[in-house]
Amino acid sequence: MSFLDAPRVVTSRFEHEDSHTLSRFVSTGGYDGLRRALTMTPEEVAAQVDASGIIGRGGAGFPTGRKWSMLRPAPVRYLVINGDESEPATFKDHALVTRDPNQLVEGALIAAYAVQATQVFLYVRGEFALGLERVQAALNDAYRQGAVGRDIFGSGFSVDAIVHPGAGAYICGDETALLESLEGKRGFPRVKPPYYPAVTGLYREPTIVNNVETVSSLPWIINHGGAAFAALGAPTSTGTRVFALAGDVMRPGNYEIELSKPTFRDLIFAPELGGGLRPGRSLKAIVPGGTSAFWIGPDRLDLHLDQKAVADAGTMLGSGSVVVMDDTQCMVRAAWRISRFYRRESCGQCTPCREGSGWVENILRRIEAGSGHEDDLGVLLDICDNISPEVSWPSKWPPQQTTICPLGPSIPPAVVSSIGMFRDEYMVHIKDGGCPFD
Q1: pTM of the predicted structure, to 2 decimals
Q2: Alpha helices in 296-374 (DSSP H)
Q3: Which of 371, 386, 391, 433 lies deepest, with the highest CB count within 10 Å?
């Protein structure tokens, strides 16, 4: 079976214009997964999720079943859905929130039952105006359907859910910063230990934080069984995943495909997916897992979309964003723009991130403007080493960090990758006093 023949787990309704409506949702099996889950014990539901092998789709790639098993016993337990997708060129969760909000609500309720949560919070990025409106409408419909609230579908299980708009800070993608924001405080990542919100989370109570795509997969897993999900992909990366393909391809967009079997070449060049590059262009570099990932070159096109394989290659699938850059793109400018984003989004708690991001952005801007010096490259690498010790090219994964959260180590990859792969391009900027792509 071709990877293109795999079932669509979370995007099956996208072909319908009214995919966000309750009528379309119910007519296509909506709430069947929740009803089935409620006939099982919470332990049986959790066992199916564990058997599926699904890992978090938000970037960290932590096994969902294992995360649930770490939940500390307590009278009060919270479930928080992380819909604060805000990494540049990452837009898969946005689509799921906007196009199928009822599925998100159903998945959240299945998770709430499995972990016996006493309250659910749907934390959605504030800029997703339409998405917020539709999630709230879906939640209102769920209350009217008896799918949330007291005695859900007559099962005896009760839980309430709240939609909470985020304030637009990238740092709130970190689960502990999100919890701080949810408590009404500034979105600062928490000092660790405790390392996991499952031990001490929202309001210092045990909390599970799951990504939008992760919980949106749960109705399918419960309806078809964890083994059916695990049969897709490979043991190191099971199921399907939505990839947000952007950049210099003919058909940018969200594509849900089976993991492990396809390669970056398939994703970028298959006519049904990316459709290849523009006529006459050649591939220069790929950002494989969001802007915090180390870049790969054309020599890695046949690398499989597998969590372990990509990590062994020194980078990550991360947020599911794949950015393609062809030979018309300036790599210095790309690294500068990425560093500028992280400088602006740093919360400022940690000195290496707060100061290092500013130095990196200033030096890259100077080089791009034609005022750089050859010594600047060594300074950039030294700063990156202070943020993420022993960072190097070829890259290693995962990187080390000197900061409370992973935003710090997100800064060096673009810098180290661009210098390692395109040092000659930097030297042209420095020696010619300007960008050759202008």
Answers
A1: 0.95
A2: 307-312, 331-345, 351-368
A3: 391
